[in-house]
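Two entries, shown back to back:
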Amino acid sequence: MPPFATCDRWVAERSKRHGGEFFGDAEMNATVTIDDHVESWMNRKVHSVHRDASVRDVLEIMAKEVIASVPVVGEKGEVVGIVTLGDLARVVLSTEQVLDSDFPHYEDCFWAVDLFQRRLGSDPVLNVMSENVTCVRPDQSMREAALIMIRDRIRHLAVVDERGLVGMLAAIDFVRLIAKV
């Protein structure tokens, strides 16, 4: 099997899952630069949850769509938070710390399993989401978006306009951009 066969299959599968456009709108551009607008590279297929969703709802979306962040929206569609894999990792670590410090012999207890299932299942998404969501506009440049991500040490940006959430921009989108330059 050629060394890139696995990558080619991954690109084909990812492209199929995201509407057949692995490189987005910018693929059609004659020239690609870091000054392209965010709207050319953002993912328009946003998978979000309402603020009353459960952590399990977020986990199911992440697993099904193979994504690392899910924005949380309010009644009017406004972005009120975001759940990332990092947020979920913190939940797991904090739960483990509680069990280790308060109950050193939790391995034998059914309630320990219940605690994990509740924190990563039926608990409300509001308990795990990050409330400070960094956003960009579709007309901002990819350079500006990259500088924001570096400054804030984040991997995901919500893209919003006057209508609300219109897309998501992730670190992988910069990899796609570099691959096209």
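entry 2 starts here
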Amino acid sequence: MIPGITKFANEIHEIKTRQSAEEQHPARPWHHRDGAEAIYLQAVDAGDARATLHLAQMWEMHRQPGRAEPWYRKSADAGEALAFSGLARIQERVADREGAAAHYRRAADDGDSSALLSLAWMHYEAGDPDGAESLYREAAERGDPDALVSVGMMRERAGDLVAADATYRQCS
């Protein structure tokens, strides 16, 4: 592993993203990725497993899920919890709700509490508010500050203002 190379690639990517926003045609925002991609690939070749995650995130950010997915899979194979969330987002885009839910659950089980929020939202959208609330509460128990707010909002939308108020009070 090359110390600091992933951080360096991230910095290059951010700088080029800003330059791209200022200089590049808006229809082709991914031109700036080349320098960062080369550095990430060097880091991967040097054994930096985290660089695979950064490559996947870069491709996802540039709306190229087909290029992001293999990097997410490689990162997930290395045990990176955030990679499972990335795979879940890609599967959501192609309407594979079961696959997305399984990946969000795996990410949550591996420590990504934001995956619980996404999984809870999937339950809510599917008409399962009890399942959603259970997942939001699990996220709250793990210390996610947004989880109880989501429970309060669900109760408020359902017209249970007393329960919503009680839930919001738990947030403070």
